[in-house]
Amino acid sequence: MKIHEYQGKAILKEYGVPVPRGIVARSPEEAEAAAKELGTDVVVVKAQIHAGGRGKGGGVKLAKSPTEAREIASQILGMQLVTHQTGPEGQEVRTLLIEEGLPIDKEFYLGITLDRVTGRNVFMASQAGGMDIEKVAEETPELILKETIDPAVGLRGFQARKLAFGLGIPNELIGQAAKFMLALYDAYEKTDASLVEINPFLLTKDGRLIALDAKINFDDN
Ligand code: ADP
Ligand code: MG
User: Fold this and answer.
1) DSSP 3-state assignment of 80?
2) 61: which residues sit within 8 A by CB, 6+ positions away?
3) Number of Cβ within a 10 Å radius of residue 207
4) Handedness of CA 88, 101, 202, 12 (dihedral sign)
5) Distance from Cα 84 to the centre of ligand 1, integer Å
6) For residue 142, how far is its CA from the centre of ligand 1 (angstroms)?
7) Separation of alpha carbons 156 and 141, rounded Å
8) Is the CB of 44 under 6 A from ligand 1?
9) What's the pLDDT tens digit per position in 84-121?
10) DSSP state for residue 2 in the 8-state scheme
11) Which of 154, 147, 109, 150 is nearest to 128 (CA)?
């Protein structure tokens, strides 16, 4: 079962994973009100569909004022959004997430899933975030770092720090990054998820680490 980004972020927040401030909107008027309430110079209007690649498909747009947020919302709501993950027919957009616009320094990738070969969970991290991770896995698999998780003890602090160093995260933020990863693993495990993907895992210009996107899948049974 797939859930929307805004639902995934609500779960992550409960487990202490930092996410952007955001408000769900189902009409252009609600989008405008949400942008006003967020009060940031830039907000991001994000189509909520059960597929990734929304940015490239025109389903993630920046708005520089509440009026612009309303205009963008009226364009995106009701459209059949086509991305490389939806198939040619696309998916109808009924819901938007309006988020504070964050200053991007670097975009990384984080993912947790079950490795069927070893029967253990594996925590993946890559510097090649914000992009099509399937393509990275195919063409440059060495850019994806992996830590296998011992089910008896879960993700260990040293494993999280190793991944954070491997990503090239600045020294003063290694502790914050490790804490983020441990919270993310906690959310994955406690909710019985089959996949958690944070792409991008954002480093902001002011040194914060935030889940800018969230994909969480659950086993259908
Ligand atoms: P998708 O993976 O479906 O394309 P994302 O949520 O990853 O959607 O958004 C695509 C891109 O839009 C991100 O890689 C990031 O560069 C930008 N973006 C998304 N949300 C925000 C935000 N709150 N602030 C600033 N930029 C954002
Ligand atoms: Mg994404």
Assistant:
1) strand
2) 44, 45, 72, 76
3) 11
4) negative
5) 16
6) 24
7) 24
8) yes
9) 999 999 999 999 999 999 999 999 999 999 999 999 99
10) B
11) 109
